[in-house]
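Title: Comparing notes on inverse folding

I've been comparing how different people in this forum approach sequence design from structure. To keep things fair, I'm posting one structure and asking everyone to reply with a full sequence. Here's the target:
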């Protein structure tokens, strides 16, 4: 029955990246209860391997901001270079840190502070998924975005 349900509404796939196994496990459960497909990576390097080597459509990158090896915003930049239509959502337990402020909040990126509830996570995921990508923008809006960025 679950297969028939999935075929009817085509659930979104979310790649979750966090260096804490307990966070990965809890977030996976929360997202699956929200009827999302979930891929897990315990490091930025593992996430990049998934993006580079798997043909599955990934709709959203949900990544911790502060991780060893590569920070979440840097990972998102590399992922988006490979797959520009993936949307990004950042989470962190260090909302007051300079990294979160400079690399996420100052750029008005979608951010979810830890700890969070299942409802908070699912609501923020929906908000992140609704952010338009360049290929989904109305051409008139896209022209204005391009014009505005060239006028700076």
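Reply #1:
Here's my take.
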């Amino acid at each position: 029955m679950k297969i028939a349900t999935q075929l009817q509404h085509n659930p979104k796939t979310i790649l979750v990246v966090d260096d804490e196994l307990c966070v990965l496990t809890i977030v996976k459960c929360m997202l699956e209860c929200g009827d999302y497909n979930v891929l897990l990576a315990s490091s930025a390097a593992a996430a990049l391997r998934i993006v580079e080597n798997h043909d599955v459509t990934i709709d959203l990158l949900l990544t911790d901001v502060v991780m060893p090896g590569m920070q979440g915003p840097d990972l998102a930049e590399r992922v988006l270079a490979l797959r520009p239509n993936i949307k990004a959502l950042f989470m962190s337990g260090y909302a007051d840190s300079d990294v979160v402020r400079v690399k996420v909040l100052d750029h008005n990126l979608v951010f979810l502070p830890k700890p969070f509830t299942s409802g908070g996570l699912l609501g923020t995921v929906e908000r992140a998924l609704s952010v338009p990508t360049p290929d989904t923008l109305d051409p008139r809006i896209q022209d204005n975005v391009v014009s505005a960025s060239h006028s700076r």
